[in-house]
Write a structure and sequence with these properties.
Elements (H helix, E strand, L loop, with lengths): L2 E3 L3 H10 L1 E6 L6 E7 L2 E13 L1 H7 L8 H14 L5 H6 L5 E8 L1
Length: 108
């Protein structure tokens, strides 16, 4: 089974507490069953919805993201995204303009 890594405490805790969370990814992921991982913890989950994301779309889901505000979510997501992009800082800044996807994750 494929894995989805969760990068932040607050997002993982939200998922465990509320049984769902929206996370941002730089690549399209097919809906289906996954193993959600955070540090050494693992839970079975389902990605049941994938939405092309922009700040207007993200604003609608910020209350189910584990973050307290849209700017906090966007800057955190940018850090995760940047860490996966090779190339100089210019490429990393440009990556913020790349298409992103919101994944709705539900615990099984």
């Amino acid at each position: 089974m494929n894995e989805i890594e969760v990068a932040y405490d607050n997002v993982w805790n939200f998922l465990i507490t509320h049984k769902e969370v929206y996370i941002l990814r730089a690549s399209h992921i097919q809906p289906g069953k996954y193993i959600c991982k955070y540090n050494n913890e693992e839970r079975e989950c389902i990605v049941d919805n994938v939405i092309e994301a922009n700040p207007m779309v993200m604003r609608q889901y910020v209350d189910r993201s584990g973050f307290s505000s849209l700017p906090e979510w966007m800057s955190s997501a940018a850090r995760v995204h940047m860490s996966h992009v090779r190339g100089g800082p210019f490429r990393k800044m440009m990556s913020l303009m790349d298409t992103k996807y919101l994944l709705h994750i539900v615990l099984i």
